[in-house]
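User:
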Amino acid sequence: MPHLQFDINRPLSDEEKQGFAEAVRALFSRVMDTGTDHIAVSIRQFGTHDLSLGRVTRPEQGVALVNADIREGRSLEQRRALALGLIELLDRTIGIPPAHVYVTCTEHKGEDFHLAERYLAPWNRGEDPLA
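Assistant: Predicted structure:
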């Protein structure tokens, strides 16, 4: 169950959060070749100076720190496509400049992801992990 966590230094409306979360799920599903029902998205909002990234000199333009907890087995190309897609999505939808975004991918065994009915199996291309 991927968990995509976004720490941003901007306020968003509930509608913006919902639209952003849906776009994140669609991107992850396409890039990682999986379904969407198991994708968790967290959006945490902070004040302008509550987040810091060393290369950002104007945090009022926006800062986003992203952590993607995913199942192991994805290629470097998939992880890079996800990171670039998330960076582009943050720029297009929230207006955070690409250079103000830092993405970390952390890989876990499928058995580390638990739902009420079961834990996830190792990742397989084109799967629906809840089927």
